[in-house]
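Example 145, ligand adenosine monophosphate.
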Amino acid sequence: MSWPWRAPQSAQLQLARPSQQQSSNLHNFTFITSLKSIFSQIIDREIPANIIFEDDTCIIIEDISPQAPIHYLAIPKREIKGISDLSDTDDGIIDHLMIAIKNEMSKKRIKDYRLVINNGSEAGQTVFHLHIHVLANRTLGWPPG
Ligand code: AMP
């Protein structure tokens, strides 16, 4: 490992002096770590993705492991973990994603598509940054697995 070691860009490592109340922490310092989601890293252009659409509020990308010929992910730029983490101040964000999806699909003249939101690991969520799956161009069964 070369020296000095640098944390990856995505790992925002902060070293902070403790307040009086925190003074029992190891060596009088507090480590605060926060990892960006993979989607925030895409939004910040730290990792590549096929970006279909972007505005100030959201991004639409191609899923890296498509489950249908068309498989997009519509993602708010604000890192909200999932639907159950939406708050009253997030009012409008889902409408915004829906309109962005509708516009994109209209542009591509695709009329039939399925939107899926997995909320929580038991529901199949693997990336904890809210996103809407957009699936199209194949027959989709019901009920879903
Ligand atoms: P979910 O399982 O509902 O949380 O969906 C997460 C989705 O993100 C999966 O369909 C993954 O294939 C997709 N995904 C994970 N990493 C990437 C990436 N780097 N670029 C595009 N899609 C990704």
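Summary: The chain has two helices and seven strands.
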